[in-house]
Amino acid sequence: MNAHSDIKASQEAKEDLYYAVHKGLRLANARMLIALGQLDPFDDDAVAATVTQLSDHIGMSMSHLTHENNEVHTIVEQRLPGAADHAGDDHEHHVEAFDELRMLAGDLVAAKDDRPLRLRKLYQRFALFVADDFRHMHEEETEIMPQIEASFSAAEITGIRERIVAGIAPEKMVLFSRAMLGAASRPERIEMVTGMKAGMPEEVFSGFMAAVLGKPWRDGDWDALEAALC
Ligand SMILES: [Fe+2]
Fold it and tell me: pTM of the full predicted structure?
């Protein structure tokens, strides 16, 4: 092992705060865009279900943004002034996008004959949000995370992630877990589920997995997990 590989090994030991959750958000963004594109605007039940899916999606995205603002950006700012400024500006634009999307979804539900036009406006606005969000997440992963890795210890980075997880309400954790497990590779999925199982009592774990899958899950049945989430 030379000096270069020593440095690489120490970097690899640090968690990437963005990797798994951003993969989940990318999957959820893509699924939401497809759902809006495939929606029949005159099917009342489908419109109601898709608007609920959008509301959940905005709620999850808003939580993620709040976690980053409160637990990541404030800490980064203390040690690296200015490093998170651009990401913070993006977050403000995201909040504006969420307000517009909620308004456009309300317009769709309230509309009568012009529902196709209302749906198209909602679909187009959501697509623009996704485009912004994909670019924004890439910037966080390639510009902010390397600065965090260079300036914070592995224990400090793990502490940031633990504070974020501790602050997530159970119903939001179900949404995040669905997206993150669905977006992960099988080895990553097994590692995540094994980690969750180790971190909670057996009955809590069973209940949590049933909430994530929408039905009870038998430990280690990875095919059933993937059939439900992937
Ligand atoms: Fe962000």
Answer: 0.92
